[in-house]
Write a structure and sequence with these properties.
The structure is a homodimer. Chain A contains 19 helices and 21 strands. By secondary structure, chain A is an alpha/beta fold. In chain A, β8 and β9 form a beta hairpin. The relative contact order of chain A is 0.15. The interface between A and B is large, with 124 and 123 residues.
């Protein structure tokens, strides 16, 4: 059942040595790196009839309003499948959409550089990714600042260190001090040398896409043919809501789906701003945009892996700011899950909040969105650790706090043992009315690993806590960040792989990377 | 469907004027006072077979180990039903237990002094109660102190003020400056004059129980016969785990069930301390204790309303302190719900945390326990607002924060509208690719009430937030507490009722209340 402890089916042995799965690395005790499974039914927030109404409305949007697809090659694929084209506008027949998307797989393996860290996507599998794409970064020592490579590298290390984080969701923070012409080369090199978990690439034009594919191919030491058969990279495709697929995003689908890589098709449909003010309306639009993107992946290559991404939230109607972890966000997250399951697609949601501080708000908004994602049947939870300020900021401390929340979720997802010994009838009889269980053999045999040991929660009594200076959770986090960075262990990258990667980056940087106009 | 806006079935008109349901009282906008319904399936954390294993193990505990029942009258009732009695020890035949508990109702109405605030308990109904029984109290102005009547009264006012709080769960804080001989008289008088929501009484011996029943009868202006037919008071019965029902608790069941009032049978089974270290074992013991108590209610009066209470958590094995909001707590909460539904009983869980501060820990532990309760099918969530420090402390500020969380939950529980206008096809067509929805008629018609407006969450952008002094959620709370207390509106208690209540309290206080030995 735990496919992570065994080589994936059809995965040939690699030159790289496989690291054993350990229940804890250096530093604080951790949950083990483990593929998680949801062993209960996800929550349905609408009836089957209501779900069909949203499905039909989305198809009506695609056939009557249509969607602007800015890349001519993508429009040509739609045209070839019978879509009506009018300038950039593509209108899709409902039956065509339904038929085309039916070839998308409901479950697949995303291969990591370290095969022990492959992740299974879809079905009842659950995986967590770290924060991605924040322009700002902060820690308590130096405050909030622009994203840069040093922080980027540190956050990649933290994402590698914490076992509850299964994969990268993107650049945890934008390394803005790297010039855009070569940023993807250095950043991807950093990720592949500092970490061995499954990776993302941004869809930023053909050349960058090809560079990233080649670097992942080198890291995995596979042929191009094998890479094309084994999803090894994922890219998040955001439509420009409402109803537009721009050139880099269209090209991303063309390039990555052609190579059998994973598209995570995620409209960002903010109810009241770029989508209707009603949740049903915003999700109708989300669904139309998602289905168009999913259809394109299957027109490129039937069977190409694709994930249905939901990212509908609401604006604060006072300020126009996006809000996260709201009741509306959760309803939309659960509704998105129902739609993804209707289409037999893996589902992606997020752990998000709009707090400026690591305070109670950050705690409850993150928890609410995390529970919404999990109960809504998300297979991938992105921005799982480190997201603050509505995604504008990656926070070292929040990453550690969230790693604790994800570990709690992992523990919650572990099946509750109901074997004869778990029922503890003998211990109950032995203790009897009025006794206690501290000293029983049943307790002694199990207490060390019986309960989740949190990193952050302070369970001391008030007096001890007060004597210690009344620390809040926030006060404890900087020490935990340092401890995690200190105990970070780099992955064992064979020398030949490291050299080949470095050579590639040197060569491409020497060529000037990708032409930019600045 | 919203039974709160109509007089309850079989509820005769009262002399008291019915206050209209308003979407907001004075002060910040609020959700309306409304009976909530869970419109999705609760989460099952074990299979049906595993559930049966726990059920059978619990019955085995009751038949082999048995339970100590310290009140002779209670033992006599068990004996009359065929139980084997050995000193205090009562052993119950499995078939007998199953048969006896079958008369308990799965759903009933708890009558409040104001019939508009009656609450429906069981089925898919959900109601929230405020913090109860804390020995300490705190606010940010004066810090942590012993419970006292002034704080007690203020917390009752806050519980009355916030519409998301449906009922009282007990004394929010112990008014320790009132002598125990008369405390129940003054405290219950305070609750009945400062609030019109459904009330609790503590089970602290015959005389106190009778005094509380009489005061609630006066407040509702009903006859004793009508009171006996209309549950109007609830009392939480905690077994002394493991496997003991002490005299005041046994008498509470005898007194209140005889009068048709609501027993909330809640073992406090702390895994690793007063219960086995495994969650399955701790819940097996919880279930044994709960079933014994439920059986006693039905032996007293078949059909008496009773709620299955789950309160299994784990100790911190380092310090021995109880932990709350943990993965183990959530699994136990969901498992308790499965057992309650198996027996056709309403289910009670809690919103709890072990934090000493209103920080991220308080935010995530509370959110985790609240989600565990809700997804686990809890019909009553106690300690819903204000609980801190593992229940040792009632916090003004935490009460306001939690009122916000409960309001978010209420909004989440409101059905997602999927009518034709909600799907917004016209608006999507009108805006088209690349536009925005701010100005559309569809948005303009709905934006004021489209989304939940939080009290606490700060959604300003970083710059505005920093200019305002970088306030955390905690910093905002004292102002919200003052605002809520300032806008508190006392219930409209008719003069004759107020006089009758005052006379009763004066007389009973004059008689010395209840004899104590100190």
């Amino acid at each position: 059942m735990d496919q992570m402890t065994e080589p994936g089916e059809g995965t040939p042995r690699r030159r790289r040595g496989r690291r054993p799965v350990r229940s804890q690395d250096a530093g604080s005790p951790q949950v083990p790196f483990r593929q998680l499974r949801r062993h209960f039914e996800p929550t349905a927030v609408v009836s089957d009839d209501e779900l069909e109404a949203i499905h039909r409305a989305s198809l009506a949007v695609l056939s009557t309003v249509g969607i602007d697809v800015l890349a001519p090659e993508a429009r040509a694929l739609f045209a070839g499948a019978g879509a009506s084209i009018d300038g950039d506008r593509v209108r899709l027949d409902p039956e065509m959409v339904t038929e085309v998307i039916s070839t998308a797989p409901s479950e697949f393996t995303l291969h990591a550089p370290n095969p022990n860290k492959n992740v299974r996507i879809g079905g009842d599998n659950v995986v967590f990714g770290a924060v991605a794409s924040a322009p700002f970064v902060s820690d308590s020592a130096e405050g909030r600042r622009n994203g840069n490579r040093e922080d980027f590298r540190n956050l990649v290390k933290l994402s590698q260190h914490f076992n509850a984080i299964h994969m990268h969701g993107g650049y945890p923070v934008e390394p803005a001090d790297l010039h855009p012409s070569v940023r993807h080369l250095h950043a991807t090199h950093d990720i592949l040398t500092l970490s061995d978990k499954a990776v993302n690439a941004y869809s930023l034009g053909r050349q960058r896409n090809r560079d990233c594919l080649e670097m992942v191919r080198i890291a995995r030491q596979v042929t191009n043919e094998q890479l094309d058969d084994e999803p090894s990279i994922h890219t998040v495709i955001n439509s420009s809501s409402p109803l537009r697929l721009d050139v880099p995003m269209s090209l991303g689908i063309l390039e990555y789906s052609r190579r059998g890589q994973v598209i995570i098709m995620t409209p960002f449909t903010l109810a009241g701003a770029m989508a209707p003010v009603t949740i049903a309306g915003a999700v109708t639009q989300q669904n139309a945009e998602a289905l168009a993107g999913v259809a394109l992946t299957q027109l490129v290559r039937p069977g190409a892996p694709v994930v249905y991404g939901g990212f509908t939230s609401n604006v604060d109607m006072k300020s126009g700011s996006p809000a996260f972890g709201t009741p509306e966000f959760i309803k939309a997250a659960m509704l998105g899950g129902q739609l993804a399951r209707r289409y037999g697609l893996p589902y992606r949601s997020s752990n998000v909040n709009a707090s400026n501080a690591i305070d109670a708000q950050a705690g409850y908004e993150s928890s609410f969105s995390l529970w919404g994602a999990l109960m809504g049947g998300a297979n991938i939870v992105f921005h799982g650790a480190g997201w603050l300020e509505g995604g504008l900021r990656a926070s070292y401390e929040k990453l550690v706090l969230d790693a604790d929340l994800l570990s709690m979720m992992q523990t919650f997802l572990e099946p509750l043992g109901v074997e004869v010994e778990d029922l503890a009838l003998d211990a109950i009889g032995e203790v009897g009315p009025g006794g206690h269980f501290f000293g029983t053999q049943h307790t002694q045999d199990r207490y060390r690993n019986a309960f989740y040991q949190p990193m952050v929660s302070d369970w001391r009594n008030f007096e001890s806590w007060q004597e210690a200076g009344s620390p809040s959770a926030h006060d404890k986090l900087p020490g935990l960040v340092r401890e995690a960075l200190d105990s970070y262990v780099p992955p064992q990258l064979p020398e030949n792989v490291a050299a080949e990667l470095a050579d590639f980056v040197d060569r491409r940087v020497g060529e000037g990377g990708v032409a930019t106009d600045f």
